[in-house]
Amino acid sequence: MASKNEPNFQDFLPLMAEKLGGDGLIAEFCNGFNLLMDSSKGVITFESLKRNSGLLGLQDLSDDDLYSMLKEGDFDGDGALNQMEFCVLMFRLSPDLMDQSQFFLEEALQQGYFQDFHL
Question: Average model confidence (pLDDT) for the chain?
Fold first, then answer.
């Protein structure tokens, strides 16, 4: 049960995946990434997340919440989220999508959505 201060989260990603298919869902993730990223750096930084979070209805999140979001998805430890890290984080936040994630990832890789990604 969520407390008063916790956001009430309803997972719409499985419905989006069903309606949009793998390609469409990944394209929407990419659109979300583009909304949140620092366009001069090509990644989501704390500053860009804080500045743009209101576009996604997240304006009430504290700085600690925003830092936690970045830390949760930052696999390479650079303090920012690249496009791949952001998309993986979106899947991880949806337990129902995790069951289907291998299919969606393979489909996205075949379509070249992450062609510029380097580890």
Answer: 78
Q: How far apart are CA 64 and CA 42, in angstroms?
A: 23
How far apart are the C-alpha atoms of 104 and 92, rounded to whole Å? 13
Q: At what angle are helices 13-36 and 83-92 packed, to 10 degrees?
A: 150
pTM: 0.67
* Residues in CB range of 19: below 8 A, 6 or more apart: none
Q: Alpha helices, DSSP H only, in 1-119?
A: 13-36, 46-52, 63-73, 83-92, 95-98, 101-111
> Under a CB-based contact definition with an 8 Å cutoff, are residues 91 and 102 in contact?
no
β-pair partners for 43: 38
